[in-house]
## 1
Amino acid sequence: MKLHPQGMYLVNGALQADAPAGVTQADARRGTIAYSILEAHNTSGDMANLRMKFDSMTSHDITYVGIIQTARASGMEKFPLPYVMTNCHNSLCAVGGTINEDDHQFALSAAHKYGGIYVPPNMAVIHSYNREMMSGCGRMILGSDSHTRYGALGTMAVGEGGGELAKQLVGRTYDMACPGVVAIYLTGKPNPGVGPHDVALALVGATYANGYVKNKVMEFIGPGVANLSADYRNGIDVMTTETTCWSSIWQTDAVTEQYFVQHGRPEAYKELKPADVAYYDGVIELDLSTVECMIALPMHPSYAYPIRELKANAKEILAAAQEQANQQLGGKVQMDLVSKIQPDGRIYVEQGVVAGCSGGTYENICAVADILRGQNCGNGQFKFSVYPDSMPTYLELVKNGAVADIVSAGGIFRECFCGPCFGAGDTPANGEFSIRHTTRNFPNREGSKPGEGQISAVALMDARSIAATAANGGYLTAASEVCDTEYTAPEYHFDQGVYDKRVYNGWGHPEPDYALKFGPNIKDWPEQPALSDDLLVKIVSYITDPVTTTDELIPSGETSSFRSNPLRLAEFTLSRKDPAYVPNAKAVHALDEARRAGNLPEEVAKVYAELEKIGYHPDAKTTNIGSAIFANKPGDGSAREQAASCQRVLGGAANFACEYATKRYRSNCINWGMLPFLLDTPNVLDNGDYVFLPGVRKALLEAADELEAVAVKPDGGIVKFTVRLGAMTDAERQILADGCLINYYKNH
């Protein structure tokens, strides 16, 4: 794999450093597939500043309630575009009594009332349904899940927080500067046993840490594309999220066309390819024949090694991985990976899982069946589970015998459910090591709770190598080591009748008089204050980790059941990272409530007195008081807006960071009225500091390059510094000034 340090031109299918005679770089930029799709969806007339409308949207049952509640409060009367609501996350009803199914009934009633598409629980995971039924060449889909990626089917898809979907529901646009485009130039053909997750993990390992594709579009081109099936492409594509790219797109061909014919939608196909001359901001050349069977060790998909290399240097690599993991866990509990090395040098794992939009696809599971046919997973600690991605996939696997092969070998066949991806299904025992073909292996993604003394480890692997490990009784084995496997690749027959009989499709047929069905856990968003002229915030959490994930900001797993209740969910904010955050944030919120009631707290009065000494005159009656956190680089991972909204409903007013890990999280902060400050000198702040921001509203609305800030230390010390807000649209600035997206729509 080669990452070119500079942009390059694609000229008649060949890469070259220089532009052809008479061609400017600006002209050549128009030659990418991404540019043509973005141009077709842009409403601004200015390709430097995009204002886009999407062809359809999708959410699952941990996000759609909040999105619809936001849109309702903002004046929505019907869905203006097809909106798919799937139920693949909170479908076990294991937490909170009726609240999960109450959310599902809310979604069904919303599909009737507003004209939406409702996919019942266990029918399909979110991305598989959208691949099968909503994708199309040249289309754009917006989803409230970070792995909203359908580029392998010619569809540019974007995962964002719920605020961005609410904007589409009230007729507004998705606004951003035109992203860069990086070519992923594929050659060669994968070797037997090497699956899509192997290619994906190799790409993530090569691009995540260096930010090579951050907030850009990954455009897959080159002769190697033709050597990959549609399922194989989808498996690579869904993992592009882990590179921190913004979206993805692939050239299309006869394989893509056959996919749409197979799924009864031939009209969804058209050829997409770069123009004769196209300019890319970066290029990754990848010879697929060089990719080995891979493993991504805890606790990030980018910690990727060839399985061969891990087995040859097991003690050294596992010791380094566990040390890194334990630093990330902050000493709460100790992960032990080295103990998985057996006396004979083999590595033992206790669990294997193949699941979801990345692992549970038809071809992956057929390959698992081929490897396990006639084998035995054993009756030791090792256990193996498979979750198909959709009921049409499940039905075909029953018909062709794959389910029987897996179950006969000792595997467990599950329902269509995303649980193993986010910590709500097949949680291993304390101390166990799990290998999974899922999208992420972040802390707690397997369901353990380090704060309560629990820890298990998850590594990502391709379904084929997981099956090879299962056939070997739990001893880590690459699929490439099982040379006698005959991959049968049975033809897929899609039965749309499975969906026709159960999915409610009300698109284009809203029923305005249909009553929404509210469960007792479904609550409205609490009101939020507009930004005051000056602002006082208190730092209530100071996080020095290199990256803070959205899973750490608001945990996944069983907490997702409470995501229709903003105040109840907020109780979990930073609970596994900084348990003191919630009480500290509440204490600051109480200070502001007292101020609003005319009773200036003594703690705040002392801060104001120190500010008076150096010439500042904050008005206690009009200056809001909020909480804030500092984190070096927050927001890696999920698109879920609750990572920001939970801070906001607890009285959060700002974040201070050196960098924001993703556009998604920063957009969520903006949409919830959280000022996303950038700080060049993090050492000026400490936990417990008050920060006064004089004239912040005026500076924000006037797009000032820098804003004045004054830190008042607990001992009365004063430090002056500057902060930045970075590039924003006028609408984003006004959203922050109004206090949140809902207020913005009420006011404008």
## 2
Amino acid sequence: MAAWDSDRLRVLRLLLALCAVTAFFATATPARAAETTPVTQAAYLADRLRENPVHVTDQLPREISRSTAPDFARLAKKTGVPTYVLVLPSQSSTDGRQLLGAVHDRLGRDGLYVLVDDSAVAEATAYGVRVPAEAASTVAMYELPYDAGPLRSFERFVDVIAQGGEKATARAEAARETYRDDEPAEMYIGPSDRRNQSFVTGILLTGVPLLILLVAGYAGRRRRRSGAGRRFPRWVVPGAAVVTAAAIALTAPVVFDQTRSSAAEPPTPADLSARVDRVAAGLKKDPVYADPESPRVLDSRQLDRLHDRIRDFRRSDGGGPVYVSLVPQTPASESAGDSWLFAAAVHAESHQDGLYIVADPDDGTIDVYNYGLRIDSDRLSLDLPDAVTFGDSKADEADDHLLGERLDTLMTFLDKAPRTDRPGFESTPAAAPKADEEYALPPLFATDFWPGLFVGAFAALLLSGVMAGTTWIAGRLLRRRDPAPEPTHLLPFTAPTEPSASYLRRTAYTELTTLTGEFTDPDDRTRAWDHLDAAMLLIDGDPDRARAAGTDPATLVAVIVLARAGRAALAGDTDDLCCGINPLHGPAVTRHHVRVSAQGNSRRMLPVCEPCRDTAIAEPGGIPGRLLKLPDPSLGNSRVPYYDATDGPLTAVPHGIARLIDKVRETAGVH
């Protein structure tokens, strides 16, 4: 009996022990699970909206900082209904409508729920209120370019909500029809566009003023040649060029007034440090920090195993603390998407050495950085399998990127990693672009502005040359189509000293036919008739012979002189003298002793036109260069002064037109 009581006592004690163990695990395990299981994304966001109806993430400071929350709140009041706004990073694995529905269920409040990502209104759903949320989303999507920014997109969304159902629906249909094929023009320019603007500004700043100077100079020369003279004071053209340059320099910054390449406003230092502070504070409480704004990628079992592996590694020989950040790395974050820079910032803020693992729940990448453990850092960066760092095809297809399994594989890799004698530390990563300068455009008068100055000058020279050449060609074509004699006052400046045969034939024919056409009375036997009669004698009465090949150059010059003198006589000019330096210069104004040879001091008394007279007085040695020279067949077509190249009627020019007429008649045997 005593033995039986003893056995029963042992069994009773064993049962009591088992009950105690069961009770311990029954109470302890749920408590740990409650501590380690992360709050769901929807619950966390609902709590944020319970505190404030507008929640702006701290993960996008380079695109939209938390300091814009008051602006979203101000716009949200215009909807006329309770409005809850979530500004979050875009998440490829999360359905926006489902997220808003889950947040609404957690929050338990009716109203308009709007999800805004880093570029625009991503989703909007109304619960218990009647607002045209879908139409407003459509208008914001179609009417605005992609670079308008989230705040401007939300502003357009709110404006359409305020219009009411019918107007909002009509506007949505119009926007969809208008921008079905073509998107709205971009609102901002990039650095390459600014360089183009600078280049164009440089071209205009030198090209336009220089073109004004060149064209005005060319036009002035043509006016002087046409006898119009200078119409404006000398300072007008340079002044116009200077004023134009100043106007371009002052207007360009007004036309090209963009200063930033994005709608993003520069974040404050607090905006840039908010997420790092949050993650560092979280890692001090728990070595695994799962971003509460992102979808959950580790379930309770995976999270428990990761905690166990981290605890075991810390206790292992040569091991140490491991800190895992399950946080997305986006270009709009404080670290500009650089996980190394993010890990360095978190380490500096937490002041805790160890291995820092950055796992991105959005794209699934895993990076490891060593700060103070005796682990071969080169092995961590070079030998870590790609299947761990980037995942494989199965990881790409999974919503959670199989991060639980891959982190477990990483911990196994760390357990086997060789230990070193001294702690290793990562080098300092390159700094992220300065947030206040990242979207700032270069100054207009910089970069390609300087090459533009040289291109503008070259373009002005080229364009003015093309204009001058085009004008000259057009003039030549017009003269050939409808030939007209040169104005008399231009002849001293345009007449060649060594005319070609084609020039002489063309000019003789033009002058002769013009003189013939000016005779309105065939019976008019005035002094001009003598000039025409003498000219016709030289070409046997046939004007077409004036442009026939083989006609003697001296004869053609005489025809030109007589035809011009005849036209002058018809106009009432009784002057009988023609320039003896170059008969093609037209009428003479006086007689003057002139030097006619560059060698020696040979002089002749010759009638001279005004320019030749001025040359004879100011520069006597310049007269031989102005003499009309014609080919001399006896000298192998070398050119000599006209009065030495022939013994025909042209030699009488220095004695006057009347003597030339007589000489022509004597040669032709006409009395």
## 3
Amino acid sequence: MTNRLFDASVAAAVPEVDARGPWSYLWWLARIRPWPLVLSALLGTLWMVPLALIPLVVGRAIDEAGQGAGQAGLYLWSLLALGLGVLQALAGAGLIQAAVGAEAHALSYSHRVLLRQVVRLGATLRAKARSGDVAASAAADVESIGNAFEVVGRAVGALIAAVLVAVALTATSPVLGLAVLIGVPAAVLVIGPLLRPLQERDEAQREQMGIATAQAGDIVAGLRILRGIGGEAGFAERFRRTSQQVRRAGESAGRMEAWLEAAGVFLPGLVTVGIVWFGARLALNGTVTVGELVAFYGASAFLTLPVSTATEAAETLSLAKVAAGRLCTLLRLTPETTQPAHPEPLPRGALSLADEHTGITAEAGRLTVIMATADRAGELAGRLTRPGGFGDTPPVLLGDVRLDRVDVTELRARVVRSGPADTLFSGTVREELTAGAARSREALDNALFAADATDVIDALPDGLDSYLDEGGRALSGGQRQRLVLARALLAAPDVLVLEDPTAAVDAHTEARIVERVAELRAGRTTVVFSDSPLWRGVADHEVRLDGDPVPGSPDRSAGVPS
């Protein structure tokens, strides 16, 4: 199975999305590829119109037979009814394919823009959105949007057929036609007030689903820790309460959907009963013929289908509006890293890092160890690698170029930050380590050796072709940390910033990793946030949190104490 997360072609072909609002997004989806919807609407019309005309043709055939005009007219109208049935069958077969094609378009493009946004946000996503919101959007919201595109063809066909029937009935009997023209729209309008409560209740259910999904992910990710501290029961009870809130929200939305479905059946049926009763009175008075009465009854019964289809379309579009609004909320999030207006190129070769605000300096081609507490390490690592958030403080210099003036693509290619928040995605180990880039087997073996992760690969059933679950949950904490380190080393950036890369391994393993990483990264800039004496032992330069060099620390590049 191929991990498409690292395949740039997945999102490259998709134009920029219009995420100003839910209707803007839905219109954008329709505009970028309109032909599936146009074909669906055309076939929906060809499917619905024959169904509307058949009662009128049958009524005319009855009148022809009752007037004794001969068998020719009866045969003609009967063949016409047969032809309409064949046309409807063929159009119905095509409509299914066209509607599924329109739905697939909406699903595919919505998934692509969501994936592209997740990749663009990167680590920013964790701070700006709950994981449950992203998962729920990728599943429930995208599906709701697809359902809306599927119903468009039938809705357009129903509308055109209803207008055609109303015109035909009005031409036959203006009184009955007027009754249809008033009764059917009135039935649809009465359903309208039910849509707003449905949207509100669906939004509430969607919110609870996002919370529950996030909690479930947190529990699964921390299951081993929960077992270790005996916290399984407490978290299970908390999730049970949350799931009950989701259930209650779903029942509330379901009740409103049931009322909406009931109205979609009852109101058109009421209109049909009224029209048939009125038509029967006219037939008794001789105002309309028996055939016309049959035609009016069949047409009135048919009109329940357009009304029910309109009800379904209104409900589906209402849910799609909620889903598109949630998706737009994610699509409007902005990454902390933005492309500068006039980027400056970085010098070739090894790069230095200098932060005047904290006093941290990392000379080009050297291994610098920064002793900092865990709560400060992440903040400082972000400051050294992310070209934003400097405020009034002096910016970080990367090779004498301001970090916020470096081209984002070049920055990501030449500077890599790896820390405890990094995750392993689902896919094969090879795909996970190479991130879709072409890497030689020698480079891969060297990175695994330096991270002391060769034994991790050997323990897997298919080695590098073994499939990893999301987050690498089947691995221990130390195994995951070593694979994450191997992935960072394999990227071979000019500047590598590591946050406590050996916190989850034992001292013997750490000693091997420290020596091997120092050897592998020789000649390239490496910054390690750690208070481990093993890292300090191989450092070319050591820095305190306040930026001052550590007294007595070695300066191996110069051969004298710093």
## 4
Amino acid sequence: MSMSWADARFMLERARGLIRRGLASLRTRGLGPTWARVRRQFARRAPPISRPLWFPAAGPFAPFTVPASEAPCASIVIPVYNQAAYTLACLRALAAHPAAATCEIIVVDDGSTDETGAWMPQIDGLRYHRRPTNGGFIAACNDGAALAQGDYLVFLNNDTVPQPGWLDALLATFDAHAGVGLVGAQLVYPDGRLQEAGGVVFDDGSAWNYGRFDSPDDPRYASLRDADYCSGAAIAVPAELFRETGGFDARYAPAYYEDTDLAFSLRAHGLRVLYQPASRVVHLEGVTSGTDTGSGTKAYQVRNRDVFAAKWKDALARQPQAGSLPTAGSIVRPRRQILVVDAETPRPDHDSASLRLVNLMRLLVADDAHVVFLPADLHYVERDTDRLRRHGIESWHAPFATRPAAWLREHGPRFDVVMLSRHYVAAEFLPLVRRFAPQARVVFDTVDLHFLRELRGAELADDAGLRRTAERTRDREFALMRQADTTLVVSPVEREMLSTLLPEVRVEVVANLHEMATTGLPFGQRRDLVFVGGFRHPPNVDAVQWFGRHIFPLIHARQPDIRFHCIGMSPPADVLALQSQPGIVVHGHVADVGPYMDGARIAIAPLRFGAGVKGKINLSMAHGQPVVATSCAVEGMHLTDGHDVLVADEADAFAEAVLRLYGDAGLWQRLSGNGRENIARHFSMEAARDTVQRVFRHQGRPE
């Protein structure tokens, strides 16, 4: 497809933005860090490739052992009728990659006449139950459920090869999400093509295996999602719930539509049916019953559709029209659909803005919105992209999204709200959104007021060139605020400033969002000082250099046993050089900062310029770790010197505050408790819920 005018305009705005940010970076960071940033921006990223499918080695039967527990979390029920070789492969797969969860495996033999009866008793740990007569799939499953001892029932076809991690992913879904009644796996063909990403049911009772024959890596199928039903080839359901709802309905005997009926029954009880792509199972579809609906057991599929349609007539009236083609937008209706665009995939382990964005999207999902995330760089970042998907966020990337204009042309009509994060992202995308999603309300998320941060940095450096750059950034941010329907800032201070400068603009505050953490070690078992902050952010570089050169030497001279731990991604040479001073350790990026939050006695935030609210302070206070900070660092954070934080702006006073807090257990305990109260009151998920609902629930653009 040739490049359109929309594509060309987008690329022109992106080029301008990159040049502007590159020149600003040269002035504030220097050539080396700027060049590293450019290389990172344009680095080629390989597209995601599905994990190679695993299959057990074929071979003659020999006895082996399968996982077993006397107190299982899950009971895996496998109904079988002949096809002993397929059952053997399934059991070998379960034995080769045992789950972390305790389980029992129950094979229910529905009257097989092949080797099944000879082989199954020889498999150690297997619970083998032989029915006296053939009763069909439903009868076999219900028999297995009656025998099961686990908290969860997992129904698994014998013509499957479960992939490593499949069971733990299914079970973890119940813990991670509220109100879940059933979870189904992603089913794939042996050649790797997708067989089913959850099922769609139409108004006449007919069904559709969503995603059939597509790539399982396609973002449409790679996220946790509500489904009309999930095929019973690999599903999990709480055992007590299954029994309370009567199990698989015998009116569908011997088979077909029992799984769809169960899903509808659970939803009628207010429970969710979820498709979990992190649980992958190879399914040799049709091995047992064939694929011909005109004869054999498969013929019951046609008959049972009418039975199902009669039973669920009222519910089916709300389903899509028969013959319509399910799309990424249609299968999640009538839920609100919200598009979020940021410069790159958020990495909550690296910076507070990422943590805020992830938690904001989680709040939207919890408010029954369907959230779609598009990174402007279109990169797939395996761990972080997959994290969003586990939260139920539909996350796109190349090669499935290649040009923003083309992607928005296809998907724009589905969105009720579009949120654009950061002024340079909004400048690129806002014209495309207005063209291809004219019905959507646009929310401009400033993340922080970039111009304010740049202006304060220019004043600190007394640099006229940086001041002019900040003024140009201000003009761009203000223009975007006027074009957007709502602007988000992170502090009341920023909202009050904008209410004076731009009284016509609707501004809402969504601050940093944190979950309360454990309080960690008590005062007497904690040691040292810690700073957490990424060094792609110039205020953090300045803060650490100022602390390391002018404040920490004063602390070290009076108490040389105190060490300063500096944590953050991409520390520049000037920060690394601080390690030449005794007591300073520069760690760089740390995958898990928990031990430092729980074990360091004091967190420091010696920022001399910046804007917004500081995630490093929120993070420490959420862990009950007291903070010594500057006035700039605590701006707009509802903190009071001496009550929930210590504030000092001069080097001598900052060092004195650190030493005082380091030796005063009573003051430390008071600041710790009050700091946690501040997080719960102002920066928790619950504190933001009303504002988020007010901003994102509104339907349609304002008149």
